[in-house]
């Protein structure tokens, strides 16, 4: 998430404005400038090609071999993929990824936006509240998982506390219930990441022109209607940033599950990243692990490709209009 | 002379001294994961003996078996292996043996008559293709039932249960006394250890091995089905927050008198000792009810090929030190395990370990799944048993069928 945070201020549009200004300042011939830019980027390109693309290709290649502890060149076709999809635990992992992904992203967006709006109402102690709401994000998923593991333990945490206070029928045992364990993971994820969405959305809200508010008030439009019909539709870029950051978090979810449920009870809250790590380092199952990571890569590409296509279409249309 | 030159001279003198020092001694870089209190004390026994006999031990300990494994594999692949690495017996290292990446210690094994000293079914797990590749260090019994004496007294239980029927009758008594009968560690690897303990009690040492070897008749036998039934019945005797519990937290429940029994390896003994409890008055240890034998896991040392004659010598010396009868006993005492050799004086070990030694002498030890099947298959069995525990809707027949698939295909 650290890398993600660095990119967050670069909302779409900001980059475009900078580059058009740059073109206007061109003192040197354009080709020389391009060559300089190219040379500056060469080391980065080498790193990208060798480290990212290279290892990616190697992983994909290994997924077609019978590698166990060590990489081998004994090709077995799609055998590892057949094994993978015959493994109950992998299927559960994929289902959990969908459940977690949808609920986590949607939940963070809704809670984060509501928090941002309530802070935007110029409440007192806004700074204090903002700090409190953002604070969980300063904790790693491991710490979050441990904290919630204690809170949700039926004999130590919230359940026992409520019962001690007199509400004897109170039940909150999601972590130990195999049908609800993945929702316990979602809950702790929401607690951790909603603050981030709040900050992003609040920044967006503060960017909305005050004139719009005044005009809407004059027309006597209710506040909620102003938010729903006028303000929120302007927050597209903030929303896109938030969704991208959260989605990256979803795909690599590992530490939260390890700390909170360790995939249990049974394999009820397993996630793909944990499946891959276990097989890679614990079970000497290199072929199976690389097959699983290849499936993950394809899934991510399948989601990203239409989005990237839509972006480029929009860009082309915008250029066409100019 | 300036201060800088003085410092440089000083440094180079030190360098010469230290390299001369290294020439006399056989340097060995040893990777292991023994980092907790008792483990570190145990490894020191080996270190001291190794250094005293002309070696020079340098420690490369990495906490956590999996991260250590990752580092170990990548060092072997990059051609820079350590001198030795602590591993477990059996198939864990098989692939490295097959690929010719490990040195064998046949000469040391022959000179030390390892084949006579080590039980036959364990000796068979030390090598591959006629060579001995692993030097066995010590063994842990895994099918122990630790119990709280005060809880047994409170519930009116006079003696250790001798059969599973007696066991469940006793657990009912503990339940009636308002306590938790079984302190359950709710992680799949721990659940599999309990399953193994029951399996051994039903099938015996030979049948246990056959079941993991994928013998269909054994897996479909009544003994196996009874194992599944007993294991499933235990769900009624654990507390609601057992899921995900660490083994030492479960041990703490027995220590504090909240729960009656815990099934765990003999490393749990360390927790009782650290809590100041006395064996025989505060807690007791028994093998799982009705079992004639013991499930074990063992530590051994593997020796990667380094291509350096000096390293080969250091490896031979280390193998020799490890199998020294005195070292075997000292190490076991510190680690809470027991020696691999049948021919050592074990009178100084505690009452628990004595029971283990008796099983070992009688040849009644069953190597666990991590020794006799590949890590991939072991992982599949772990997943299955963990899932079965969490899902009471799964039938016994389903478990039988999936177990057979797990040990044959992985």
UniProtKB/TrEMBL annotation, chain A:
The compartments listed are: Cell membrane
Per UniProt, the keywords (alphabetical) are: Cell membrane, Membrane, Transmembrane, Transmembrane helix, Transport
Gene3D superfamilies referenced in this protein's UniProt entry, alphabetically = MetI-like
The organism of origin for this protein: Kaistia hirudinis
Report the record's Gene Ontology biological process terms.
Answer: transmembrane transport
Under what name is this protein listed? Answer: Glucose/mannose transport system permease protein
Bias class Low complexity marks the residues at 13-25
Q: Report membrane topology.
A: Multi-pass membrane protein
Q: Where is this region: Disordered?
A: 1-25
Q: Which family does it belong to?
A: Belongs to the binding-protein-dependent transport system permease family.
UniProt domain ABC transmembrane type-1: residue ranges: 94-307
At the top level, the lineage of the source is Bacteria
Q: Where are the transmembrane segments?
A: 38-60, 97-119, 131-151, 180-205, 226-251, 286-309
Q: How is this protein annotated for GO cellular component?
A: plasma membrane
From TrEMBL, chain B:
| Protein keywords | Periplasm, Signal, Sugar transport, Transport
Report the InterPro entries cross-referenced here.
Bact_solute-bd_prot1 (IPR050490), SBP (IPR006059)
Which Gene3D superfamilies does the entry mention?
Periplasmic binding protein-like II
Q: Where in the cell is it found?
A: Periplasm
Decide whether keyword Signal is in the record: yes
- Which SUPFAM superfamilies does this one have? Periplasmic binding protein-like II
Q: According to its record, what are the GO cellular component terms?
A: periplasmic space
Q: What is its main location?
A: periplasm
Would you say which domain of life the source belongs to? Bacteria
* Signal sequence, renumbered to the chain: 1-22
Q: Name one Pfam family in it.
A: SBP_bac_1
What job does the chain carry out? Part of a binding-protein-dependent transport system for a sugar.
State the family it belongs to.
Answer: Belongs to the bacterial solute-binding protein 1 family.
Q: What is this protein called?
A: Probable sugar-binding periplasmic protein
Task: Provide the species name.
Answer: Kaistia hirudinis
